[in-house]
Design a protein that fits this description.
about 850 residues, homodimer, 8-stranded parallel β-barrel, 20 helices, 29 strands, about 30% helix, globular, 6-stranded mixed β-sheet
Chain lengths: ~850, ~850
């Protein structure tokens, strides 16, 4: 097994563009693929182009686009952003139509795509009478017929709107939507639409699963920042206007003088795309970097230091968007050191930013991670409200409180944070996590838009008579705040496909689309992304959309249903299963499952009182078992396993059923994907197939672990008889072992039967053998082994003297140094003819500290069916 | 431009197999493509697997195969070849069916694929009654139902037959042919079925266009010979049983003692696939290597040296197949040095080989390359017959005369060599050239099987009453010779796709299939190859077969019709056009075209007498203008340009028409190929598209050059008014030049108008500009520039101030250090909207000695049409 750190070392590769410099590009790539013999790109689809592939339009879409789109792009605005827009229009239409539009600086005497601000049009074409009260950054696409020529006008108040309008037009063409009578105005829902990168200055990324940082390496900005420019383009296509370029767990060094030129280089790369740089800062910086003896926010020296430091930064990066600050949380210093409030802390920094129109995002993710588990009144979920609600009105107007969607930490399902709408006189922004920390870390397909929508559309009842959904509160619309918006923790890195997983790109796309317009449906967003990314074959689109749109529920089903939260190792890598890892410690991600029942009592009546932090109409729903939705039941209530849900099913049976359903759903995804063979390009087809097959194996690990844990805890049997009974399974510990020794696995649920076998031999091999006694037939073998990160063990599977399969345990998985559910991996060996009496022998050769562990062998009747004819 | 030598330096990459060690394989590859995250291959189609892809069967083919193929492969023969066969059957069926058959050493009590010699079956299964008089290496595929079980028996006299039968079975499954009642016996047509590699010990390959040698590097066998093993498998799949591993222009060093272990390593890599190593030797070796003062074949010391040397070789490589020897030809030493005959030379070597059952292939390609052009009776075509016919009966029985298909040298069209059948008491073999020396060098698609068939099927009338086609003569069948067969000069190298061009792989496949069975039709062979290599979609197969089957005629049409031979630079790279290069020199590839007419008079009556070397029935046909086929008219006769062909068309008009037809046909190939978008995997789709687009440009260069030459020579106009009139063409020399200077091009026909422009500036740029005065509309631009091999110049094309396109002139082309038809290259810039008055400016930045030359710009109405919907 290799850790994911190794992946980022790759040379970043791109799909070459069709015409411009394709060969030169290839030469620099070192990926010596094929002969750079001719102009056209020779690359397979890598995912690098993401949703901006501009693939050639086919058939009717092409004919329509050729007839609707004029031959000229007239760029009447001379700003750099308008130039980017004009170039992008030419590039995109060239890709889709094979035609290069004429770039002209003035309105020609013929039809044209016209890029011009409203002011410019009022001056130069008053007879067009284009008047509108457009918001900043908004755009207007409008067909204008005038003087015998037909124009597609992209207009806006500002160049940024022209850029966003250009991407919108290209999106419509890509999607096959007609521009014949286009008349579309679109305004961003909120002014702040940012991404946060949790990139460390050493090039690693906290919770990053798409390779190493595109920004940093070895304490400096990367030499080659072309990936930053390309990322800026991706962000601009979604209307994202700010990007924090270092981890919120900030290295104070970011504010040292020698970092300023580094930051300026990154800002330069982003600037043509209207993406403004944001810096994450450490509150202790005046002391650690500034040489002061204090960082007390009320100390004048400290205020002066912040001002001087910010001024220096703006001198180099005049369009810096601002700072993000995490204080007094998870070990980071904050105002509590001096008995000051979060408002004191935020305002001292914000006031330094104010003269430059910079803003401060102050994170609301503040909690005590040394809470006493034994006190049933303690509740981390209360922390955001408890910390910030009393300070409402104390924050300056260029401060926003950056509030995570839920009260805990991006769990598989949480209610909306009660802090939304509790701040009426303070700016807010919602923080969503695009990177899949608790969602399978780009190894599981989870399309997060439906998850985010569940929060964004949730009505907080912050006002008596009008709906006050979270999105309106976060955007500042409800209480007419000057600022508000969206922050997404991004999921990109140096991996060729940016995200470590082709389908995970949809989360970045979906976040950006929601930040622009949270009223878009999940279906719309998924449909757009799929068609832009994989083309317009309806069979492909239906299959991918079906997977994406059900994937969150599927993941919830096999990881932590009913509001239990993700039942992962919360003190470890947040990936594998460990039901008890969240209990009996101070971190507060408790679910309080025990032998009698499960769930946190967060009611006002008998529990922690958390439910009472919501406005009364919401609090009432959660407070009562009768009205609390099943999906959040165990988040708000502790109930016995025999408690019946609204569906009539008991809690324990629901836990069993949902896990089996979830695992079966992923197996179904594999089959759905296989139906796309030949319809999706070979490269991405094989990548996604491999990823889904891996996920299917992991879903089974989760299924078995969670159900076994609750079975052991509850002593209640599965009504369907599945849990604890695995008729096709042969435990390694029960096989004839040669060299392998039996180990108890911790936690017990991480291995089938609580045990596995490991090979202690250095330099040698071990084997585990069994005799097959079933009926003769075609079978699939599934070897459940442990792919640890501390070595590359080697496995071989023999049928008698015939070698059936062999592989290295070298997958890129989260760090796991022992036999557990993170390293537990399934190897499929399909289509084996077995006869009674056959010996199947699995041989493992350990390497380093990887002990070539084995959990079990499953022998199942062949499921492989003929692949459908196209 | 890069020379092709650079290409071989790549790490050879492979398509990973689906199951076995895929990840391990990727790790060794250094082509860090994507995450080696899971078991399945993540590669696009590279061409590495050639026709042995074993792609999953679909639909009905799969259902039938699953029902027809048993679960066991019983390998009753314990030879290494039978083990290779058994492994290949398992590998192939696993690829196609996703099932791993059981490898068993004995007949099971159930159905099986049975691999067993006839002798073994007679012993173990007498009741099956399988008796046949099978030839050596022949195989028999037979369905046997016995004792309630159904067997597919692969049987043969020898293990080699078992191997060939296994590949035949896999081919049938791949092609979707039923095995339900299979009963197929197949024998090789001749015992010698070899390939010759013209690989030099330094790793270069004479006339190689698929990268560097897979055998040699830096005077040694390569460290990594895995490509040799994989090549052996490809050869075995075709029934090829011998391979000469070094150039016939042999480095004497090959026979030095320190080379023996190197040769042995290569033999080891080939041996599991039944491919026996052949060595090309230099006749002067006794002197140059052996330290003797003579290499006189009749000198006893020389004979003893050959014996000792051969013995030593066989001690290390006991299954060496023999030697190939080129003597007294193209500057190589031979028996003439001592007044000895070719028979003397051949026999002294053959007698050393005889005790080891080794054989000698003695090349019949012997001619004088200092012939006097002024003597109209001189004729190189006569050389083979003149040299060898008088020696008939003088050669030992383990000698074969290796005769090229035609009397000259692999020209685009030649008659069959009259030496076939002229030797009645001497073994023969036919030498075919798979590598496309005179056929576009893997940059032009030319499927050679129809060319070879034209010779193989040609009746030499060597016997009065029975047909005596060349294939029967070469195979030794006609005169009942002990030996005979086929030698193909191979086209493979280290390129990932082996051949430098995906479609050129078909020539190796076609050669091998013909060597096994020359009665197969071109259609059958093309169809097999296409389906094995690109899958069974009928639309794909029809399009590819249509291109392949017409490609030879197309290439002939634009390079040298009517028997003129390939009108290339015969004293240079054999690639670009140079009509007069073959004249006025001693090489004898004369066509004697002048101002009055063209063609070599080779008649007995008035010419060189060559026609009289054929047996009378053939000689009569060629001798007479009335019966000589048009395709060979100018090979046998000198006629005036106004001479009328059988079709009624004049020679000159045929030359014009065929060149325009040929060039138009390649343009049509591009369109045919484009119709396969989405049906062929992206990687190969783009590669072949790029190659065909390049070929279309080159075909136009040829068209214009040859027609202009004959127009200037004959002063006869093209009846269709095309030659000399290029309405959409703007000559660079007529543009407004800034820095560029006008150059006369030599030969004049290599540039449009006989002139081009070159940029002398070092470190600067030049430009050529023109004003467009046509109607407003969508146009395609075609820039004809010169991509020299002595630098990488850079080009930019501007429309006013808009950059339309830019590229490096870095294609992998044959060596060309000046402005000529080899470096002449077309850049397509499709879909440009032009308006009257537009300025188009081409800017060239020279590099090294590459002068960024320009020939012309063509501006043609847009031809790009909407791509058909799938």
């Amino acid at each position: 097994m290799k850790t994911s750190h190794n992946r980022g070392a790759r040379t970043p590769a791109r799909s070459a563009e069709t015409h411009l410099g394709a060969c030169g590009l290839q030469q620099t790539m070192k990926l010596a693929i094929l002969f750079c013999f001719l102009a056209a790109s020779v690359y397979a689809e890598t995912g690098y182009d993401a949703w901006l592939r501009y693939a050639p339009l086919q058939g009717a879409d092409r004919i329509r686009a050729e007839s609707e789109i004029p031959a000229v792009v007239a760029g009447l605005d001379t700003s750099p952003l308008a130039a980017s827009a004009q170039n992008e229009l030419i590039r995109g239409l060239r890709g889709m139509l094979g035609r290069t539009l004429r770039a002209e600086p003035n309105l020609p005497g013929e039809g044209a795509v016209v890029l011009a601000t409203l002011d410019e049009l009022r001056r130069s074409k008053p007879q067009w009478n284009l008047a509108a009260d457009l918001a900043p950054e908004a755009y207007w696409l409008k067909r204008v017929v005038s003087g015998g020529a037909s124009y597609i006008v992209i207009t806006a108040r500002d160049p940024r709107g022209l850029l966003y309008g250009s991407f919108a037009l290209l999106r419509q063409v890509s999607l096959g939507e007609s521009l014949a009578a286009v008349d579309e105005k679109s305004s961003p829902y909120a002014p702040v639409r940012w991404v946060n990168e949790w990139d460390n200055l050493d090039g690693s990324i906290e919770r990053g699963y798409g390779g190493r940082s595109i920004f940093w390496e070895n304490q400096k900005a990367r030499e080659d920042l072309s990936r930053v420019a390309d990322y800026g383009r991706m962000l601009a296509s979604l209307g994202i206007n700010g990007c924090s370029i270092n981890n919120v767990n900030a290295n104070p060094r970011i504010l040292s003088a020698d970092m300023i030129p580094q930051i300026a280089r990154i800002a330069d790369a982003f600037r043509p795309w209207g993406v403004r740089v944001v810096i994450a800062v450490d509150f202790g910086s005046p002391k650690t970097i500034g040489g002061l003896d204090t960082f007390d926010p009320l100390d004048e020296k400290v205020a002066a230091w912040w001002k001087t430091t910010v001024d220096a930064m703006y001198a180099a990066v005049p369009d810096l968007a601002g700072f993000v600050l995490k204080a007094d949380s998870e070990g980071r210093v904050g105002p509590s050191a001096y008995g000051r409030t979060h408002a004191d802390a935020a305002n001292v920094v914000a006031r330094a930013l104010l003269p430059h129109a910079g803003i401060l995002l102050y994170r609301g993710f503040v909690y005590d991670h040394h809470m006493d588990w034994n006190n049933p009144k303690n509740d981390r979920a209360r922390a955001a409200w408890d910390n910030f609600q009393p300070l409402d009105g104390k924050f300056d107007d260029n401060v926003l409180i950056q509030i995570k969607n839920g009260p805990i930490d991006f769990q598989v399902r949480e209610p909306a944070s009660p802090l939304f709408g509790a701040l009426e006189k303070t700016n807010q922004a919602i923080e969503l996590q695009i990177t899949q920390e608790y969602f399978g870390q780009s190894r599981h397909t989870v399309f997060l838009v439906p998850n985010w929508k569940a929060t964004l559309d949730f009505d907080m009842h912050a006002l008596p008579d009008v709906p006050t959904p979270v999105k309106a509160l976060a955007a500042g619309r409800t209480f007419h705040r000057p600022l508000g918006g969206f922050v997404g923790v991004a999921n990109i890195g140096l991996d060729e496909n940016w995200s470590g997983n082709q389908l995970s790109q949809a989360n970045l796309y979906g976040y950006g689309r929601l930040a622009w317009n949270p009223d878009l449906s999940s279906q719309r967003i998924s449909g757009e992304w799929t068609r832009l990314t994989f083309g317009t074959d309806p069979k492909v689109d239906q299959a991918i959309d079906a997977i994406q749109l059900s994937s969150w529920r599927t993941y919830e089903d096999y990881t932590g249903p009913l509001g239990l939260q993700t039942l992962t190792d919360i003190v470890g890598n947040h990936y594998g299963v460990n039901v008890e890892a969240s209990e009996r410690n101070g971190w507060g991600q408790w679910h309080r499952a025990d032998e009698k029942g499960a769930g946190m009592d967060r009611t006002a009546a008998t529990g922690t009182g958390y439910a009472g932090q919501y406005r009364p109409p919401v609090a009432r729903v959660y407070e009562s078992l009768a009205t609390c939705p099943d999906d959040l039941l165990l988040f708000f209530h502790h109930v016995p396993y025999t408690y019946r849900l609204h569906s009539g099913k008991t809690v324990i049976q629901y836990i069993y059923d949902s896990h089996y359903q979830g695992a079966a759903a992923v197996e179904q995804y594999v089959e759905q994907w296989k139906s796309l063979r030949g319809l999706v390009d070979e490269q991405r087809y094989k990548q996604v197939l491999a990823q889904l097959q891996y996920q299917a194996g992991q879903a089974e690990v989760w299924r078995d672990a969670v159900t076994m844990w609750f079975h052991r805890a509850s002593h209640l049997d599965d009504a369907a008889g599945r849990v604890g009974h695995y008729p096709n399974r042969f435990e390694a510990e029960s096989m004839a072992l040669d060299g392998y020794t039996v180990r108890d696995v911790t936690p017990f649920e991480d291995a089938s039967g609580g045990q596995a076998v490991a090979c202690p031999a250095r330099g040698g091999s071990c084997s585990a053998a069994m005799k097959f006694s079933g009926a003769a037939g075609w079978y699939d073998l599934r070897v459940q082994y442990f792919d640890q990160s501390n070595g590359i063990s080697h496995y071989r599977v023999w049928l008698g003297r015939q070698l059936l399969d062999e592989w290295d345990a070298n997958l890129v998985l989260p760090r796991a140094i022992r036999l557990d559910s993170t390293s537990s991996t399934r190897r499929l060996i399909p289509g084996i003819a077995l006869r009674p009496g056959d010996e199947i022998r699995i041989e493992g050769r350990p390497d380093g500290n990887d002990t070539a562990g084995l959990d079990y062998l499953e022998i199942v009747k062949e499921t492989n069916s003929p692949i459908a004819t196209r």
